[in-house]
Amino acid sequence: MTRENELLKRIKNGDSDALSELVKFYYSDILRYCLWHAQSRESAEDATQETFLKAIRYFDYYVHKGQFKAFLYKIAANTCVDMHRKKYLKDVSIENQQEEFSYTEQGFLEVEADIQLRQMTKALSDDLREIVILRFSQGLSLREIASITELPLRTVQSRLRRTLKQLKSEYKKGGNGIEHKI
Questions:
Q1: Is the pLDDT of residue 133 over 90?
Q2: Please, what are the domains in the chain?
Q3: Helix (H), strand (E), coil (C) string for the chain
């Protein structure tokens, strides 16, 4: 039994400590995801907290047929969209975002790669950028991405392949060094 499955089982049995452990287990991943969609670290932290509150609120409706992580990312994506609609989150400014990353929380090289990936993907459409973020920044499998985006697996594969070709072409024209991410 995986750590995730063990925690989910304990939560179903009413163990509040398991709930805290689950939040700790996924907090940094969800925060990092929200940083991609937020103007500031505070906005990302608010979106992350709201994501976990919603996950707890709707936990009884969760049917464990896949990874809970995909369920959390879907909630985070919807939360960020909701916050955008409420004018809570503003357009991402790469220059401002660079200062918002916590160099102590993540490795410096990882942060640099995320900043470079953000610069390379800023011209992509939102749906293509989302696939690239989930794959290369969050390290999710294509199957998990398909679940989160509610797209067929083949569609995710073809969009990712096409986008990578586009990014590599951009890189060859003078991109800024994200070949290790691609």
A1: no
A2: 1-100 (1.10.1740.10), 107-182 (1.10.10.10)
A3: CCHHHHHHHHHHCCCHHHHHHHHHHHHHHHHHHHHHHCCCHHHHHHHHHHHHHHHHHCHHHCCCCCCHHHHHHHHHHHHHHHHHHCCCCCCCCHHHHHHHCCCCCCCHHHHHHHHHHHHHHCCCCHHHHHHHHHHHHCCCCHHHHHHHHCCCHHHHHHHHHHHHHHHHHHHHCCCCCCCCCC
